[in-house]
Amino acid sequence: MSFDIGDGIDSAVNYILDNFSPTLDFIAASIGFVTSGLQSGLLGIPMPLGIAIFVLLALWRVSFGFAVFAGLALSLVGQMGLWAAMMETLSLVIASTLIAMVIGLPLGVAMARRDSVAAIIRPGLDLMQTMPAFVYLIPAAMFFGLGAVPGTIATVIFSMPPVVRLTNLGIRQVHVEFVEAGNAFGCTPTQLLLKVQLPNAMPSIMAGINQTIMLSLSMVVIASMIGAGGLGNTVLTGIQRLDVGTGFEGGLAVVILAVILDRLTQSLGKKGASWRLPFAKFGLREPEAKAA
Amino acid sequence: MAFTTEHENGTSEGSTKIRLKDVYKIFGEHTEDALELLRSGKSKTEIHGATGCSIGVNNASFDIRAGEIFVIMGLSGSGKSTLLRLLNRLIEPTSGSIEIDGHDITKMSRKALIELRRRDISMVFQSFALLPNRTVLNNAAFGLEVAGVGEAERKAKAMAALKAVGLDGYSDSRPDELSGGMKQRVGLARALASEPSILLMDEAFSALDPLIRTEMQDELVRLQSEQSRTIVFVSHDLDEAMRIGDRICIMQNGNVVQVGTPDEIVGNPANDYVRSFFRNVDVSQVFKAGDVARKTQITIIDRQGVSAAAALEQKTSRDREFAIIVGRDMKYHGMVSQASLMEKIRSKAEDPYHKAFLADAAPILASEQLSSVLGQVAASAWPVPVVDDQDRYIGAISKSALLETLDRAN
């Protein structure tokens, strides 16, 4: 006996198209609202102001040196004429990361709470991560047409697993005595989650969000094949015209955006830039002085 | 009790606060079967073999009186921490009843249990368990916060608790800025803030260095003299138990072996295990050879076809001078030294193991009193192998292990 998995998937996709198009339209509209809102918001910021914002963020969260790098690198992007494309890409990354978090964090929490849920979700995550990214583009385009919306959806699917996995892992790795203390002082399960587990799982969850952002950045470029726009378009144009220069420029802008996003998100949940600490130290008490 | 004073929470001093009756805790999957086997008198090992379950607490029944410091003592693995966690159901008992102020907590709903933990019972942990993302004040206020007490009130109460433990100047510090002793003061303040009538303390001072530990014990006794609570204190340290305990409960392998005042326990220990906790007791009379034997020596299984040279290699790589040769059934065959084995291998002797056996390495029986084998271990140039009554190897006693055992007890 032989059967064709591909045929099965085809007819499933067709079935969804025939019967659920109002739902699909609703999803498309809500995602479109988020992405286009973000996009027009970011594109509305003039380039000098945008660069200034990034530099200040880098100065506050990372270090002086990194702020200098960010300023120079972003000016270079502006010089290459790719600022608008980069903002488009950034809006797609932000939109898909937000959606991935909204779906992924509760999934991770559910996995941490019950082994059975974890056992069901884990193979799904494996599939989402290992399936070649291009494969998502086809049904996404069929369901939602071309443009930023299917691009966002394909990106969400591809980039969501890390935040789910690391939320699960982070909660499970919370020290058993913290959980015992929470229970011993009369936490309800929700209080335990919000007051004990999530705060202590934060470093791991932030690492997951960072990974999700990085993955979505790589996927957003691929999603330009279904018209998601942004820097991916520049790279795609370079490929189609065999124009090495254009392709390289697009690629360089992606790398710059990636480095800046990576460093900025890694700094979330940590204390501020270390060069500020010498000043902060004056405000600290000396705990050992009064030690018993 | 000759006299009783009315306490503010309604229970009079000296009356029963917590009553445990036939309490069992069995860890594992088929606890019903294990419980039945346990009640029919099977041993821990037999039950583990038959059901895979392990016994945490075996048939504990005793009363804890209002206002006393009740110390649960035992070696690690004796079930004392498990027993403590049964009292607020952090661990669910398998069977039996635990009454607090006359209410059986094992039958309480989840909701009532949460209420009980918020109002009546709090806990102090060995490794402090302070939440690192909160300030000292917010840690101290944690119990009140989850109980839904308003911000102003809980901060005032937490501040008062911090003051009581002498940390009122540190309310804005983070736990990682404090020393160990100070951290545990915060742990204590957190437990006191909700003014519970019962305080559970799980090896609360064991992680502190000796000077600070004594200071914290005094602090606890002082707090207790100011406002009397029922304190259940788990410890493995006899000095601590004697210093702070009104009564002591001694646990061994999940069994409660004796409950009494320090004087009663010293004066009339229930068994040798209890006796072994005390100083000036001749432990060589208490321990058997099997209790001291350690498997630190390498054992080599005598198999045909496995070259003795390979065994020697294994032995040298783990830096052990001696190795014990056993059969596949773990029966003791003999002991070899590096030198004796090497010599036989060099001379290509048939069956090098047996030729290399050290002539005077006679094994001793595990059931022998330690006192009767002291001489043999002391005189022997190598660790003395110990076998059980079926001739199976269970370990060896080295001079250092022996001295350590004697020293620990005296």
From TrEMBL, chain A:
Bilayer topology annotation: Multi-pass membrane protein
Domain ABC transmembrane type-1: 86-265
GO cellular component, one term: ATP-binding cassette (ABC) transporter complex
Entry's transmembrane regions: 26-59, 66-86, 92-112, 133-158, 212-232, 244-261
UniProt-recorded Gene Ontology molecular function terms: amine transmembrane transporter activity; carnitine transmembrane transporter activity
The keyword Transport is annotated on this UniProt entry: yes
Pfam families: BPD_transp_1
Coiled coil (residue ranges): none
Subcellular location: Cell membrane
InterPro entries (alphabetical): MetI-like, MetI-like_sf
Protein name in the entry: Glycine/betaine ABC transporter
Automatic annotation (TrEMBL), chain B:
Catalytic activity: a quaternary ammonium(out) + ATP + H2O = a quaternary ammonium(in) + ADP + phosphate + H(+)
Keywords of the record: ATP-binding, Cell inner membrane, Cell membrane, Membrane, Nucleotide-binding, Transport
Keyword Nucleotide-binding found: yes
Domain ABC transporter stretches: 18-278
InterPro entries cross-referenced by the UniProt entry: AAA+_ATPase, ABC_osmolyte_uptake_ATP-bind, ABC_transporter-like_ATP-bd, ABC_transporter-like_CS, CBS_dom_sf, Gly-betaine_transp_ATP-bd, P-loop_NTPase
Any Gene Ontology biological process: amino acid transport
EC number: 7.6.2.9
Localization per record: Cell inner membrane
One GO cellular component term: plasma membrane
A GO molecular-function annotation: ABC-type quaternary ammonium compound transporting activity
Top-level taxon in the UniProt lineage: Bacteria
PROSITE patterns assigned to the protein according to its UniProt record, in alphabetical order: ABC_TRANSPORTER_1, ABC_TRANSPORTER_2
Membrane topology: Peripheral membrane protein
Pfam families hit by this protein: ABC_tran (PF00005)
Subunit organization: The complex is probably composed of two ATP-binding proteins, two transmembrane proteins and a solute-binding protein. The complex is probably composed of two ATP-binding proteins (TmoW), two transmembrane proteins (TmoV) and a solute-binding protein (TmoX).
Protein family per UniProt: Belongs to the ABC transporter superfamily.
Protein name per the record: Quaternary amine transport ATP-binding protein
Source organism (scientific name): Ensifer adhaerens (Sinorhizobium morelense)
